[in-house]
Design goal:
Radius of gyration: 20 Å
Number of strands: 10
Order of helices and strands: EHEEEEEEEEHE
Distance between the termini: 41 Å
Number of helices: 2
Structural class: mainly beta
Mean pLDDT: 77
Strand order of the largest sheet: 5-8-9-10
Shape: elongated
């Protein structure tokens, strides 16, 4: 199998992992009067696309004995790249569009931010 440079199958080619592809592969059938085609979408990975997902939990802060505040967040999740140089922010709605199984795959709809010395 020839894949684009620096890409590999999400779980490799071991026979014991084939069940993962049944969960992750998307297939569409497209046809017209001249024939039928199968369009198969197989998720690939590169080192730059591997993120660990973290949920941000905000605890209330005490301002006075009777007053507490709690920050409201737009993004409740963030993904940190394996090399810890990039991250992405996700909302609850973004997370709903992810395919959850033994490997979680999220659509690349949000930007990936590179951590540099100026934004640390």
């Amino acid at each position: 199998m020839d894949l684009p440079e620096n890409n590999e199958l999400i779980k490799g080619t071991k026979i014991q992992d084939v069940h993962v592809y049944y969960e992750l592969v998307k297939v569409a059938v497209v046809g017209n009067a001249h024939g039928v085609q199968l369009v198969i979408r197989v998720p690939l990975k590169t080192a730059a696309q591997l993120f660990s997902l973290h949920k941000i939990i905000i605890f209330p802060m005490r301002l006075s004995p009777d007053t507490f505040i709690k920050y409201q967040l737009e993004y409740h999740y963030f993904g940190l790249a394996v090399d810890q140089r990039d991250y992405t922010l996700l909302t609850e709605a973004d997370l709903q569009r992810c395919t959850m199984s033994s490997v979680t795959i999220c659509p690349a709809e949000s930007s990936v931010i590179q951590i540099t010395a100026t934004n640390v």
